Amino acid sequence: MSVSHTSWTAKFLAVVRYEILWNIRKKKFLGMLVVAFALATLSLALGHIVSALTGEPVEPDPNFVINSNVGLGGFVFFLFAIVTAMNTISAEFESGTIVPLLAKPVSRTTVFLGKLFAAFLTLLATYCFLMIYLTVGGFVVYGSQNNLHLVPLSLLGALFSTLIWIAIVLFFGAFFKNSLIAALGPFGIWLGTNIIGSILSVVAGQGWILTYIPGTGNSGFADGGLSPQFVPTGTSVSTGTDSIGPNLINYILHPSWDVTFYKINMGGFIPGGSRQITWTPLYSEPFSTIILTSIGVALVYFIVFVVASWYLFRRAQIAE
User: Rounded distance, CA 240 to CA 161, Å?
Assistant: First the structure.
């Protein structure tokens, strides 16, 4: 048993090494680090840029690091998934390297798992670099930082958010065996769910639908209410998979929060006032329910698309 186990481990690690070296040769990992560094630097410098334009001094922000969400947003999570995974499977078929790769005494399942784990390691290294850089930069730019022991939760959330899109990209790559489609297909999904879906859901009052779709999710407000102008107050909370990290941090800091969701009424009236946009409360949910739902949604999407990608990869016909 031990010999068999060791043999499989050696093959698995060989595939991981092959994939990581391929990423390094293609400058993929270096490109991700450069982009991550640029975006994190912009996030750190934003306060000084605004200060230079407005003349207002940069105020200390002890919560900058834990609120930064690794210095990235939902689109960048998606972009990193595209860069990491769009060539992982499809490029092997396009270039013909799949033939010598599968000719080796390694099962297709081992090849698939090795490639997936290499993508995870690439992301983990990039996001660890970002967290260290943002933590140091936050001290320098915004002063002493609070709750730094919660920073790993932000890292965990960023990995969750990106791995969902990696699974979707792998599925398109395994199904179509084309790197361009592996990138454009998920982009169409991202565009539809995060832009068109958001507009329709808010106006129609059906934002709960976005909770079950990868991305930003529905938006609500915690620890607040409606102001005299009928505008929501409190802390903005997103239910989507992109916000798992910040939501975990906020839950530890504020476990008793309830989140209220609203519908926008176009052309409503304020009593004694003029016609304008107003907000109507729809429903409230415990913060814990929102977090558990987003984690569950992330796991379901990841498992479904990874299993589908693995199945397609195993069944793929190789044209020599």
Answer: 9
Please tell me the total count of domains within the chain: 1
Q: What is the mean pLDDT of residues 163-184?
A: 91
Tokens linked to 301: 């999407």
3-class DSSP state for residue 1?
Answer: coil
Block residue for tokens 């983990």: 124
* Residue 277 lies inside a defined structural domain of this protein: no
Phi-psi map region of 237: left, alpha, beta (phi>0 left; psi -120 to 50 alpha)? beta
Most distant pair of Cα atoms in the chain: their distance? 82
Query: Cβ contacts of residue 196 below 8 Å, gap of 6+?
Result: none
Q: Phi and psi of 237, rounded to 5°?
A: -130, 130
Tokens of 284: 């409230």
Give pTM, 2 decimals.
0.87
User: Is 190 part of a structural domain of the chain?
Assistant: no
Residue 210 within any structural domain of the chain: no
Contact 37, 119 (CB under 8 A): no
Separation CA 278–CA 268 (nearest Å): 6
Neighbours of 235 (CB within 10 A): 13
Residue 162 lies in a domain: yes
Kindly tell me if the per-residue pLDDT of 157 is higher than 60: yes
Task: Give the three-class secondary structure for 104.
Answer: coil
Q: In terms of Cα–Cα distance, which of 303, 295, 257, 264 is closest to 282? A: 264
CB of 133 within 8 A of CB of 40? yes
Angle at the Cα of 63 (from 164 to 241), degrees rounded to 5? 15
Domain containing 23: what range?
2-176
The three-state secondary structure class of 198 is: helix
Distance CA(93)–CA(85), nearest Å, equals: 14
Q: Which residues contact 156 (CB under 8 A, 6 or more apart)?
A: 244, 245, 248
- Looking at residue 289, what is its pLDDT? 93
Q: What would you report as the CA-atom Rg of the chain, rounded to the nearest whole angstrom? A: 22
CB 36 within 8 A of CB 67: no
